[in-house]
Amino acid sequence: MVSDSIAAVPIPSAANTKNPGKKKRTNRSAKLKQYKIDARREQWLSQGAVRSKGCKDGVDDEGHAPPSPAEKHIKRSLEPLATRRRGEEDDGLIHHDSDSESPSNCPNSCNDSGTNFTGSSSGGSSSSSSSSSGGCCSGNITEEEEDDDEEEDEGDDGCLDDWEEMADALAADDKHQQSPCSDSPPAVQTVLPGEMAHGSNFGSPNSKPESGSRLVPWASGNNRAWRADDAFRPQSLPNLSKQHSLPNPDRRCGGGVPWVRTSMPSSCPICCEDLDLTDTSFLPCLCGFRLCLFCHKRILEQDGRCPGCRKPYECEPIETEASVLGGSLTLRLARSCSMIERNQYRCGLIQSQSMNNLSFLLLGVLMIGS
Amino acid sequence: MIDFARVQKELVECSKDAEGSGIKVSPKTDNLVLLIGTIPGPLGTPYEGGVFHIDITLPDGYPFEPPKMQFATKVWHPNISSQSGAICLDILKDQWSPALTLKTALLSVQALLSAPQPDDPQDAVVAQQYLKDYQTFVSTARYWTESFAKASSCGIEDKVQKLVEMGFPEAQVRSILEAVGGDENLALERLL
């Protein structure tokens, strides 16, 4: 029992750790998410009803009969796994299967969205509410998740703001840096059980079959972002997901390479004003020619060619950005611009994601310190 | 509005290595709109030994717009007007880049002196001579350098005037002055 509950816990909780990330990543639309959650919940409730009626032992499948042929198929493919597991774990009780089954089912049925997963988790908890500690745990997590979920739904913009502030703080003073940091710990604490499980997840062979396939790309996708200081991981965990949600990290890094490698002029070669942090992170042209945002804007108003290579600037990010972010974010415009230009993206989110790049932050801090 | 901070910095930078490049820029007026640039004639060209002054006018949009440059010293060159001193050089027109400076622009002008482009002439007469009678072009350019671009021959008109007042015909004075490279005493000996 003990071993099983331990085995069962990591699975939903590992999923849980993923969830914030996934959620943020898929945070395109809260409505869609809510809709999915509701739908999922209903499904599971109906499954629970069916189970209470029809299934004598309550193993896996109860809910799967009604929904859809596809799910049946999934269920079947999962059954051997569950059975095998039960065989391995001597005290395979009925509940365990329902526990281990529900998360293992999730990656298959809701692979593309963390939101669905939340729903299924809650489904798992509801189906196993009467059962083991594993189920109990997953129930807790589910609640947290849902809280989390809502927090994130409304807090996502706040998150962006935090990181904008962060950037401002880097340019101005260090104090603001506390605020995003102090913001994140609560979130981290909420996820803490999940996080612990997340840690054990990598070590746990049990988690491999279900989540391994999903975890691996996830982790590798993030390597770039937080490999530098793993130690600080928990603090910036919410941000991690954002970085992960970069559509194309490789491309971003490719674009960033000249940024890192080119020597950093201390003043704008055009106007001879000192480059501030924003300017130094601004690489408008692949040729590596740097200039301040004011001069860049002025050039865009005129012939729009890079002073360094005389090639026309590829896009006019100011207009693009303005239309994307809207008027309320005008203050961010310049910075967004720089980020977008550097990354050659048009999506406004990226900018804050780039801000989250810890190496970048460290660079900024160093620059302020010096 | 001209970016005076940048102009100031350019002037400082330029004065730093004026010895090395021989290129100087100095303000003509207090407001830094009118400047005067100085370039030495490139070695191995008919302009060798001459010092050429270039009037620089900074437009309001500088450095986003190119500075207006014009030879104040008379030059015999296919791409420089022998009348007005106007310069035909792409970087002073459509190929200007804000990353260029007065110094780099003057360096380009200096390079133009050593590499005329007769296919894209500013002064058609000079260009024709360059293409059809290169030797004459070289000697004329050298004479103009001697006559107008050398400190010692700055007042060639004064010398002509002086010799003419001595009673020599002006045309002869000019041809002999040209032959001796503007040296007043040598010309006088010849004339005598």
Automatic annotation (TrEMBL), chain A:
One of its GO terms (cellular component) is CCR4-NOT complex. GO terms for biological process: protein ubiquitination. Residues 54-78, 85-99 have a biased composition (Basic and acidic residues). Residues 101-139 have a biased composition (Low complexity). GO terms for molecular function: ubiquitin-protein transferase activity; zinc ion binding. Keywords: Metal-binding, Zinc, Zinc-finger. It holds the Pfam family zf-RING_4. Residues 201-210 have a biased composition (Polar residues). PROSITE patterns: ZF_RING_2. Residues 20-34 have a biased composition (Basic residues). Residues 1-218 are annotated as: Disordered. This is RING-type domain-containing protein.
Automatic annotation (TrEMBL), chain B:
GO terms for molecular function: ATP binding; ubiquitin conjugating enzyme activity. SUPFAM superfamilies: UBA-like, UBC-like. Keywords: ATP-binding, Nucleotide-binding, Transferase, Ubl conjugation pathway. It holds the Pfam family UQ_con. InterPro entries: UBA, UBA-like_sf, UBC, UBC27_UBA, UBQ-conjugating_AS, UBQ-conjugating_enzyme/RWD. Residues 155-192 form the UBA domain. PROSITE patterns: UBA, UBC_1, UBC_2. The active site is at C88. It is an enzyme of class 2 (transferase). SMART domains: UBCc. Residues 2-150 form the UBC core domain. Its EC number is 2.3.2.23. Coiled coil: none annotated. The keyword Nucleotide-binding applies. Belongs to the ubiquitin-conjugating enzyme family. This is E2 ubiquitin-conjugating enzyme. It comes from Clitoria ternatea (Butterfly pea).
